[in-house]
Amino acid sequence: MTDTAMTPARRLRNIVGGSAGNLVEWFDWFAYAAFTVYFAPVFFPAGEPTAQLLSTAAIFAVGFLMRPVGAWVMGVYSDRKGRKAGLTLSVSLMCAGSLLIACTPGYATIGLAAPALLLLARMMQGLSVGGEYGSSATYLSEMATAKHRGFWSSFQYVTLISGQLLALMLLIVLQRTLGEAALSNWAWRIPFFVGAGLAVVVFWLRRGLDETRAFNDPATRAAPKSSALELVLRHPKEALIVIGLTAGGTLAFYTYTTYLQKFLTNTSGFSKAQATEISAAALFLFMLLQPAVGALSDRIGRKPVMITFGILGVFCTVPIMSALAVTTDALTAFALSLSALVIVSGYTAINAVVKAELFPAHIRALGVALPYALANAVFGGTAEYVALWFKLDGRESLYFWYVTGMIGVSLITYVLMRDTRTRSLILED
Question: How many other CB atoms sit within 10 Å of the CB of residue 90?
Fold first, then answer.
């Protein structure tokens, strides 16, 4: 069934189905970050806690470095074979990577092979997520109707955040039921087994999705084949816009989500359990906010929403991070974390649809995925590593200014680019 014969109920089912798969992808991806504080000593020799976290953060960053490769390969695959085919392939790779982490023995058992296998698994997950972003962003944006495209495409980050939130919630349950000793010894493997099992369910789910009208359009089939060369030669401006609008947004997002849990433990002095609960509570409200911001962009435009994020991010990042660093009150830490995430919503809720609206259908998945993955590898993937490096060097506050500067770069991009809501290249319904 194509979009031309699609009922609202069936369209909604496809959007929900695509979103559910995205949730599992990101649960697997963020389980690594959420459980790092427990499995870092298992894969690396005993030493200073910050140094061990630095080692696992480096592997986290390598996973991001694989995302451009996944974005390139699977972006081309999705543009040529279909969005549904790309989504199915990406979840298969994620399943394999999670299962490998769950089954790999520790450093004490197999020596250097342990971190090597962890690295391999993270590379597989990086390939998967690199392809997932472009395919899912393109699928949701093309499946939604033009009037509500910002609202429906915001569910990409709803499910992304849901995946991270579920990883944190599982951690809270395990902390409260099994305790620190069990988590450090063996229970940290549970989320990776869970993620691998859920990925099998999603593989089946995604095989039943409808393809989008934009991909099936005869003009898309007659257009030049998707390739990196086609992207660079025909759409260099749009690719650079994606890099520019992503750089500050993704750095801020990973600072206040992935890194925040470690920051609250390593800098603010909260226990691991407290840090997890503060992060989870802020993320839950952050998740609920995404559709509202997406709907707002449908009414006033994408550009004003992104500019608001840029301005508030430039002026508020240093004060928020500085206050978080010295607070000892959990409620204050929650309020500060939530305020930062509310600001970041101006990027997260609509960045997928903005990127999709920049490109024609025949190269849309690649155009969305590859420049985004490059910016993510450089800025998002290294966020933890750079932050921990500044802390280890005794100059942690410089990281706050680094985040501020990159948001400023993205703000310039938002001001100069067109508003894609009124000048979208997605086939209108």
Answer: 30
Token pair, residue 281, equals 């509570």
pTM as predicted: 0.85
pLDDT band at 46 (very low <50, low <70, confident <90, very high): low
Query: Which residue's structure tokens are 């009150």?
Result: 329
Task: Give the residue from 409, 402, 372 showing the smallest Cα distance to 384.
Answer: 402
CA distance 27 to 311: 31
At 220, the pLDDT band (50, 70, 90 cuts) reads confident
pLDDT at 282 over 90: yes
Backbone dihedral angles phi then psi of residue 224, each to the nearest 5 degrees: -55, 150
DSSP element (H, E) containing 265? helix 260-266
Averaged pLDDT for residues 335-352: 97
Question: Which 3 state secondary structure label does DSSP give 288?
Answer: helix
Question: Is-contact 369 356, C-beta < 8 A?
Answer: no
CA distance 158 to 171: 20
Please state at what angle helix 155-177 crosses helix 8-34, rounded to 10 degrees. 40
Residue type, 381: G
Query: Which of the 8 DSSP states describes residue 188?
Result: G
What's the rounded Cα separation, in Å, for the pair 118 and 113? 8
DSSP annotation of 376 reads I
Distance of alpha carbon 75 from alpha carbon 131, whole angstroms:
6
What is the spatial distance between Cα 26 and Cα 352, in angstroms, rounded to a whole number?
Answer: 15
- Evaluate whether 157 touches 293 at the Cβ level (below 8 Å): no
> What does the longest C-alpha to C-alpha distance in the chain come to?
61
Residue 349, helix vs strand vs coil? coil
Residues belonging to the chain: 429
